[in-house]
Structures are given as structure tokens and as C-alpha cells.
Design a protein that fits this description.
heterodimer, A: alpha/beta, 3-stranded parallel β-sheet, 5 strands, 46% helix, 15% strand, B: alpha/beta, 5-stranded antiparallel β-sheet, 7 helices, 25% strand
Chain lengths: 136, 225
Amino acid sequence: MGCGRVGAELAALFDREGQEVTILDIDPDSFGQLPLDFKGSRVVGNGIDQDVLRRVGLAEADAFVAVTPGDNRNVMASQMAKHVFGVPRVVCRIFDPIRQELYHNLGLVTVSPTKEVARLLKEALERAGESAGGEG
Amino acid sequence: MYIIIVGGGKVGYYLAKELVEDGHEVLVIEKEAAKCQQIADELGDIVLRGDGCEGMTLDRAGTGRADLFISVTGDDEDNLVACQVAKNKFNVRRTVARINNPKNEAIFKQLGIDTTVSSTALILANIEQELPSHPLIPLLTIKGSGLEIVEAKVPSYSAMVGKRVGELLLPQQCLITVIIDEEGVPRVPTNDTQLRAGDEVVAVCRRESEDALRAVLTAPARETE
């Protein structure tokens, strides 16, 4: 759910692996981000509407991931996927680290790009310092 | 009581106004500066600018001592998260969420929201008995025969809930062909099949008896009380 940069990239990765992928977005123009050879289905619709989720066959899905720009949309859709449709694997992107921690404690599998990217940048900066030191 | 309201739009504003008049301690949390200013000008110093889904804002609002937490923004997902944060991070005893999509009622309950209010559902409930296109849906017209296949949902208030198919006073040339229960399981009914609230009834009937069929299925049980 969510065909932004991350959603499109992730969909393409699974598609190339040969998985059956459906990507959902409220904006039909967003699908332009998908590679030309993407074989999965593209569905226009609101991912926090149960009727839409039912229509895309969420009840039969093995996995669901929510990567819209809105933390709350991701949280609501993921909880519906998990608790209403019984999807076995659900992952939710939450930018806000405080909300990420809360929903992690409530049993959702969550990823906070804010925390992860900050950590990666810090590590990269530290490594960059080491190699610069080595050269000097 | 100390009552926190998330969302300073029209609903939040009038709700705050009424609750202040009733003598409650009220705090409105609103993101937009202009709305905050308007509430402060008209209702006094009872507004906090911020995101009602954020832990820090709710902490500053003193959510831990709130007796009641009401989220009435225009977005269901924001109301859900605000109430879940209040409930799970600040242990607010009672949370109320406004919902736009009436179908979200069940999932909000399941996710721990104590009360949901849906203006859509309230309006629907009020017009349901007067609106002819609801709840009878024409599925198919059988060409040249004057017959139609229609579908109708048996509302929970219907006098027919609990009645057997054989007891229904159906119009002439009308036959109930399939009954689909709330779990989606279809049955071909006999005269002894009992109708339940939420059943989808598929019937063949003459176009002119559509109204009569709808009346049979949806007449409220009120008179018998």
C-alpha cells in the first residue's frame, strides 16, 4: 500500500523474485514510478477502506506492507490487515519514533525510517572519518 | 471532568463550547494556527496548538489526568491513532472517536476505542426507512417479462427478524430464491427457513410489487412492542 519511491522499489523487488504483487495507491499517476516490466497488478483505491482491501484480495494475501507518507494511514491499514483480514505477515512504516515504539509494543512489526536512516548516516559518517584519517 | 478534544474544526469547536458551558475543564488540540486563534478568541484559553497523535503534545496537554479523550478530526485514521496513543500511552479510561466511514465502527471497537460516533451512520439510520432505493437493490431485469431479480438486506429493526419465510405476506408472483447470511453463506430457503437480521434476501418479483416487497422486509417491529 503506497506507490511512492519506497513502495514502487519494494514492489519491483518482489516482482522480479517472481512473487505475485498487488500495489495500491489513491493516485493513479503514482504507478508511473513502477518499472515498465512490472507484472503485478496496480489498484487505485484508499487503503484504509475495508471494501477496497477486500477487493484487492487481502484476505488471501501472505503479506502486507504499508508505506504511504502518512504514519496514521499506515498504522490503521496495518491493524486492519492483521486483525480484520488475518494476514500472517504485516509490516508498517512509521516515521515518528514515538508512535513506532507504541505500535511495536502493541504487537505490530514496524520500521521507523527516521531511526534507521539516522543510525545508518551516523555509521557512514564515522566510517568516512576513519578512512579520511587513514589517508592522512 | 477534564476532557481533551482533538480537532478544532466545526465539530470540535461546538463540542468544546457545549462542554465548557456545562462546567467541564476542556482542552482543544488543533494543528492550524488560525483555528487555534479563533477558538482562543471565542472560548478563551482552552486550546493547545499541536498534533493530537504525538506523544509529546499529549504529554503537554496533561492527557494522563484526562477523564475523557475525544478525537473529532475529519480523518478516521487520525482519530484512531490519537485515541490509541491516549489509551495505551497515557491510560485514559474512556476514548471517543468520530468516524466518517461507518464500516470502521467494528474495527475501532476491536482496536480498543471505547465509543465511536459516525454522522454518516446516524443520517443513514434516519433516512433508511424513507429512501426507496435503499435497501432494495435491483440486480437484473428479465427481459419482456416484467420480472426483476432484486436484493434486499433485512435490517435489524425489521419485524421480520426471527419469522419463517412461510410466514411472510409476500406480494403476488414474488419468490424468495436465495438467502445469504452475514457470513456470506447462501441458502436456498424453504418455508421453515428463519430470517435473521443482516440476511441478504434475493427475490424474483414483478416490478410493480417492488415497493410491497420492500415494505414486507423492512417494516419496523415497533407496532408490536
